[in-house]
């Protein structure tokens, strides 16, 4: 089994591709995301409320990631065929739970009255259909499964690591070993961004 090193908490900020892109795009947003909580001038409750806002595209991505993680963990126990009805019910229940428990950007800023499963299931199902019907998934089931005891699927925590002694956050979606090679797969549901995604994978590899 691949082991993930754990580190004690320190308040020192670390690098991740998400944090880096936020800093480059909007330093004001970066400040409120990571520094304002230490500034007594700003009300922590308001900051926390805004930081917890999510969006329809984000939750589509979250549910797709969590569902694929569940599918892979199921593969560790069984290679039996996935029952379509039970699978659909599982995804719908997850969508219902996520929509009920989170505050959406679209609702907070009054773009929509509410966000429910009907608003996100189409996008979720499109992504999951593509994954389950892909040659990559068949390859995982037919070949990568042989090394399943070394699979690392969505490890807990934030993926904290060290590169040359500096703190970084590089949490992989799926890592496994096949034919002596380490393979890293990262699921994407948004637009392709070659440069951003390449930097992210470089961080994982390092």
Outline:
The protein has 206 residues and is mainly alpha-helical. The protein contains nine helices and five strands, in the order H-H-H-H-H-H-H-H-E-E-E-E-E-H. The two termini are 20 Å apart.
What would you say this structure looks like, in words?
- Residues 15-204 form the PD-(D/E)XK endonuclease-like domain.
- This is PD-(D/E)XK endonuclease-like domain-containing protein.
- Pfam families: PDDEXK_1.
- It comes from marine sediment metagenome.
- Helix 4 crosses helix 7 (117-132) and helix 5 packs across helix 7 (117-132).
- The chain is 51% helix and 10% strand.
- The two termini are 20 Å apart.
- The protein has nine helices and five strands; from the N terminus they run H-H-H-H-H-H-H-H-E-E-E-E-E-H.
- By secondary structure, the chain is mostly helical.
- The model has no long low-confidence stretch (mean pLDDT 90).
- It has helices spanning 17-25, 27-34, 44-51, 56-77, 84-101, 105-108, 117-132, 135-142, 194-205; strands at 152-153, 160-163, 166-169, 174-178, 181-185.
- It has a three-stranded antiparallel beta sheet. It has a two-stranded antiparallel ribbon with strand order 2-3.
- It has two domains: 1-52 and 146-206, no CATH class; 55-142, no CATH class.
């Amino acid at each position: 089994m691949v082991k993930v090193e754990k580190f004690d908490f320190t308040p020192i900020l670390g690098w991740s591709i998400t944090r880096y892109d936020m800093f480059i795009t909007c330093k004001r947003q970066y400040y409120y995301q990571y520094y304002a909580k230490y500034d007594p001038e700003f009300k922590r409750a308001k900051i926390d409320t805004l930081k917890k806002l999510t969006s329809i595209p984000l939750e589509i991505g979250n549910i797709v990631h969590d569902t694929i993680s569940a599918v892979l963990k199921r593969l560790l126990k069984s290679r039996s065929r996935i029952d379509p009805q039970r699978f659909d019910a599982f995804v719908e229940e997850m969508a219902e739970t996520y929509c009920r428990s989170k505050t959406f950007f679209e609702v907070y800023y009054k773009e929509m009255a509410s966000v429910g499963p009907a608003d996100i299931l189409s996008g979720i199902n499109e992504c999951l259909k593509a994954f389950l019907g892909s040659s990559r998934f068949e390859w995982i089931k037919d070949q990568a499964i042989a090394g399943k005891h070394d699979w690392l699927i969505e490890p807990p925590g934030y993926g904290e690591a060290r590169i040359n002694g500096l703190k970084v956050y590089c949490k992989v979606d799926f890592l496994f070993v096949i034919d002596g090679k380490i393979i890293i797969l990262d699921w994407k549901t948004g637009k392709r961004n070659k440069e951003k995604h390449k930097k992210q994978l470089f961080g994982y590899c390092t």
